[in-house]
């Protein structure tokens, strides 16, 4: 693969689909300082993943190189939103090629993020998949859950989702991370914890009830609303009821 050529092609195709009104609307919604082109997500994803389709047989180095070029793309000195989203789509599409040593590269992307719109797919579909494939990497999450960077902490929580969805939830870490994050004042952390509990409640509602109930005095309203959303009605009502 001509990595630089593919990056240039992707950017050119995205710019050819520019929708200025959409760009301005998206920029306001995300409260973004980045350059926005205004490409709908399905169209953006189609352009991005075309570079790493199965028939192209991309290598790990090519995937990482393409993602990095797209991530670093700028216009008038500012990052380009769609280029960063394309970088994430490339990594997600070929996450199976990544190795434990690539977690450092992924971490740099998270630390360079400014919004959930970049962090969430990386957290679940890249970091989470790596942890499922290489369980020893979960030890990295133990450090991340207490990291000063809010997006790293959010990633630590959301990276537990693939394990839940594949039927192998890390209950010890879910409990421990929950206790670490339960006092968070950041909305995005409270929401992430709630999502993890909500996803687990689809498979093991009793565990979620037993974890949440003794912590009702500490759990935030944001977390609780998500945690009870998929619980049986009687359990949800009991947990929602003020003490």
Automatic annotation (TrEMBL):
This is DNA alkylation repair protein. Coiled coil: none annotated. It comes from the Bacteria. It holds the Pfam family DNA_alkylation.
